[in-house]
Design brief:
single chain, alpha+beta, eight-stranded antiparallel beta sheet, 3 helices, 36% strand, globular
Length: 179
């Protein structure tokens, strides 16, 4: 009985030595810090930097939408450039850029040309990014919906070279953005 009591005291002392001195760290495996969804103003700043790097007109006008395209619970930025029309657009559409959201930041992912709205985000993913469907029209080809898949580095530059959305896919099941 005496030894059992002594063993319990030694065990308690050993376990208390493994404590955290009053600081709770949430367990043995450190958890990554919570990421903060960046504000629209941060995206706008990144768009302005993109325009400057590209040598594009500073007064360029665009529409953007925030949507999580890589399932990291942060809203990424999809930007469709509109004006000046002669710089951003042509007979088959306009320029578009995608920015990945990070912890209060954005990083450039990809830019594309010949894009017309509406833009759809599909439920399927390629290399952990949702497939994007754009409308191909205004060309010498019949109008059609084009599937843009992420290749691990970026989305295709030009939808003219990409496959048509299969006819068995119901586009109404896709989330629609940017008219």
């Amino acid at each position: 009985m005496k030894y059992s009591f002594l063993i319990m005291i030694v065990l308690c002392l050993c376990l208390s030595a493994c404590g955290s001195n009053g600081v709770h760290d949430g367990g043995l495996t450190p958890m990554p810090p919570n990421k903060n969804d960046p504000k629209d103003s941060v995206l706008i700043n990144n768009i302005e930097q993109f325009l400057a790097r590209k040598g594009a007109p500073a007064h360029s006008q665009y529409d953007f939408v925030r949507v999580d395209i890589n399932n990291d619970r942060l809203r990424d930025g999809i930007v469709l450039f509109k004006i000046p029309y002669s710089y951003w657009c042509g007979w088959s559409g306009c320029g578009m850029a995608i920015f990945k959201a990070g912890d209060n930041s954005f990083s450039f992912v990809s830019d594309m040309m010949n894009i017309r709205g509406p833009i759809y985000i599909g439920p399927a993913q390629t290399n952990n990014y949702h497939d994007i469907v754009v409308r191909l029209s205004g060309t010498n080809m019949p109008d059609k919906n084009i599937m843009m898949k992420y290749d691990g580095k970026n989305y295709p530059k030009n939808p003219l070279t990409e496959p048509e959305l299969p006819s068995y896919v119901n586009i109404k099941t896709y989330q629609q953005y940017l008219q």
